[in-house]
What does this fold into?
Amino acid sequence: MRFDTRVIHAAQPPDELTGAVNTPIYLSSTFAQSAPNQNKGYVYGRTSNPTRTVLERVLADLEGGRRGLAFSSGLGALTTLLEDLPSGSRIVAGSDLYGGTRRLFEHHRTQFGLTVDYVATSETDAFARALDAAPAEMVYVESPTNPLIGICDLARVGELARRHRARFVVDNTFASPALQRPIEHGAGVVLHSTTKYLGGHSDILGGALVARRRATGERLAWLQNAVGAIPSPVDSFLVLRGIRTLGVRMRRHCEGAQAVAEALASSGKVLRVHYPGLKDHPQHKLARKQMDGFGGMLSAEVRGGASAAGRLLRRLRVFTLAESLGGVESLAEHPASMTHSSVPKAAREAVGITDGLLRFSVGIEDPADLVDDVVRSLRSV
Ligand SMILES: *Cc1c(COP(=O)(O)O)cnc(C)c1O
It folds into this structure.
């Protein structure tokens, strides 16, 4: 089956008992046993829950992995993944990362002796040098990156990780499996904030890990139960519900983002637009090769720094000024003071998160209204 069919039918047959076409929400923390340790596969709600199980199977199917695991948030998924690292481990990470990911890496560095070396996400040679320099347990990247929309060459970095026996982890939140399946390019584990495109409606928080190999999946399932950062059955249902429209939503997100990116680029009011669908994006060709669309996220640097950025944000009417992304509604934000304020200013500026940078999550409204909103607001810059 093709992707748009799988989001609706893969791993979610009608309920066996009643024929309900939607997966029921099983609100039960515990499950009756006929004798000690004799049960129907469910014992206690932290370990597993039938609604969550369906979500986990769907996630594994869409990403092409052997095991999917759902979490209470993207950072809950990351916390669980980091629990799998022996003390004294080293991570080679792309430098352009979600602020909370970087904050958690830094916490593990200062508290638990984790070594994290950051290299430019789009520079494959930098990964090669870092991996040659010292052993690493993990290579961790986002692609596209947050907020600069850089692209990692997943196949080449994946091959480097494989050769150096490091687990290759890809945060696929920005692309979603509709546009990119990192396991096809060599990832061992895919991470998601399902809060974003998979949920798709800005109404839940959730996270996911998908393992390429069954053994990795079992190990992470053990940790999922041991750590306990699991989603509620209701939230699991809402992510399943969001996933059913993922294919059609992503196509519209891409269409709107392309239109907004082109409008920004031709406005003469911005220094740079970061969107892989623009021909002058440095990894435009790579994005075309490894993705099935350029996504709904873009960022742009306005002339005039933080005050011009603030003026533009205040004038937007269709875009809402808010953190987060990936919902049906368009959002805009200022990374330096909002999503990435926990990254030290020097580290922020080193990667290019300047005071004039704005990030846009383009929703599925009529693209013409989104373009009008941005063009009108740019007059204030
Ligand atoms: C939001 C986000 C996260 C963190 O997910 P939460 O669900 O907010 O915990 C991780 N990575 C990326 C790329 C994100 O956008």
In short: The two ends are 48 Å apart (CA to CA). The pocket of pyridoxal-5'-phosphate is lined by residues 73-75, 98, 100-101, 142, 146, 171, 173-174, 193, 195-196, 205, 207 (CB under 6 Å). Residues 247-378 form a domain with the Aspartate Aminotransferase, domain 1 fold (CATH 3.90.1150.10). The mean pLDDT is 96.
